[in-house]
Amino acid sequence: MLRLVLPLATFALLTGCLRNDPVPTLPEAVVGHCRYTNPFAKLEECRDYLGEWSEKQAKDDCASQQLEGQKAEFVLATKCSYPSILGYCILGGGTKFTRIHLPGSDDTKCAGSERGCEVFGGGLFDPAPICGGKVSEGGGTGLPTYQPPVLFCKDPMPGEAAGKSANGQVCTWSMISGATEPGRDFEQYSDCNIVRTQRPYYGAPTNMNATREDPRLNDPAYKAEIDWMKKEITATACVCCHKTSAPNGASNWHVDQPGNFINGFYDRGLAMGAGWINTVGFGAYPVEQNNGFSRATPDRPDDSIFVTTDPARMKRFFEAELAFRGKTKADFAGQVYGAGPLDDQRFYVPKACENGEGVDEAGTLTWIGGRARYVYVMEKDAKSPGVAPNLDMPAGVVWRFDVAPTEKQGLESGSVTYGNTPAGAAQRFPAEGSPAALVTGREYYLYVLQDVAFPATRCIFTKR
Question: What DSSP letter does each residue of 236-254 carry, written as one string?
Fold first, then answer.
């Protein structure tokens, strides 16, 4: 998984044994981070520059990761961020370290990540909780606690028409897949601070060609499409991260970019907009609950990642943009799914519990991997949950409860008795009453998350 080239003499010295050094205490100073494409896995990676790197040294190292036809992106003063990681590969020493993030949520890849880092990369593997690493102090994930969506109903802004909800109000879900009414600004009718907790947010530079002059804007028909696109996006939660008003700056492309904002997109983003890469894993509201906006769902997997009032028009726009860049659907044939760790989580196939996880004779729930905010007990053949609003309650759930986001910590293993919702949590299933009793000798699926997109335990246990 690492972009490291070692001389042949180095391989001759490798024994195949993994290192057992303690993880060093890393400097707190973050000079910046670098995102690039791994030449072997053909997947994105990200490295933090910690300690006494100069800005020039960090930028030069980042530039050295660049592949032909790709771009290595350096962002000053911030660290990498992913929804879920297997661990870090630590390189360097003294007062200057490089910390490579190894994204993923499939614990079957832990051993390979460790081997790649330590045997072939010469680094030191620091596992995340999903790979058996210790949980950070307080049981946190290192990112803001996920805030569930809230439906905000507000009076229209001065000078705007009455809303379509009761009493002329405008009602908008504060969710990454949410949208306000067409023609309005999502930022004015919802809460982007909630939205930005629902996916890791960070500032990131736009495509290197983002600010070039674009003669297509002189074409009235094309300009009309760009204006429609910008209007659609402004009504959705995309503007929470893809606008210069975001706290740490825009994340890659942004709607208020000078010139033609679509030039800020990378090709992969365009392919997800065209539905050429499946983005169902990001979750979606039904159109009737989202002010007429929709996006890719299990029933419509080829729709765009972008929430829109006109899915066919949105797809046509992005397909035309890809054609303008000389791209075809075949160029993305190997990129079947676009939601990354969220797809890994959704398609996860559990194995038998091996560390005593499950529900014991007294009804006590036991799990590993840290404190929990989301706990499911499901039928053995239930699908692994995805994200809200439409993928987080698969058929076969027997009992589920969520710890309130206002609680500073999740729950410790062994602190919960089956059927008794603990203080500070809310039962999500069943909607009322107690869950069905578990049958002795029957197999069930225990699914526990530290937070949304951060699995802790996912395995099949037998009720004792």
Answer: BGGGGTSSTTSTT--BSS-
Number of domains, the chain = 3
362 and 290 in a common domain: no
Out of 12-26, 194-208, 322-336, 367-381, least confident range: 12-26
Contact 105, 348 (CB under 8 A): yes
14/198 Cα distance (integer angstroms): 42
Report pLDDT digits (tens) over 328-339: 999 999 889 999
Residues 182 and 93 in one domain: no
**Is the predicted pLDDT of residue 156 greater than 50, yes or no?**
yes
* Domain-ending residue, one of 304, 332, 360: 332
In whole angstroms, give the CA distance from residue 251 to residue 262: 14
Residues 444-454: pLDDT tens digits? 999 999 999 88
The label of the residue with tokens 């229209």 reads 156
Kindly tell me the burial class for residue 439, based on how many C-beta atoms sit within 10 Å of its own C-beta (0-12, 13-18, 19 or more). exposed
Among 82, 101, 134, where does a domain finish?
Answer: 134
Contact of 123 with 114, CB cutoff 8 Å:
no
For residue 351, what are the β-bridge partners? Answer: 459
Distance CA 195, CA 178 (A): 9
Looking from the CA of 277 toward its CB, the CA atoms found within 13 Å total 22
Peptide bond into 24 cis (omega under 30): no
Q: What local confidence, expressed as pLDDT, does residue 42 receive?
A: 65
The pLDDT assigned to 41 comes to: 60
Query: CB of 150 within 8 A of CB of 132?
Result: no
| Boundaries of domain holding 298 | 151-332
Cα end-to-end span (Å), the chain: 41
Other CB atoms within 10 A of residue 108 CB:
10
CA-based max dimension of the chain: 76
pLDDT of residue 17: 37
Whether 299 maps to a domain, the answer reads yes
**104 and 166 belong to one structural domain:** no
Calpha distance 223→241 (Å, rounded):
24
Residues in contact with 320: Cβ distance below 8 Å, sequence separation at least 6, in sequence order = none
pLDDT tens for 393-404 read 999 999 999 999
Helix (H/G/I), strand (E/B), else coil: 419:
coil
* Cβ(104)–Cβ(86) below 8 Å: yes
pLDDT tens per residue, range 251-290: 889 999 889 999 999 999 999 999 999 999 999 999 999 9
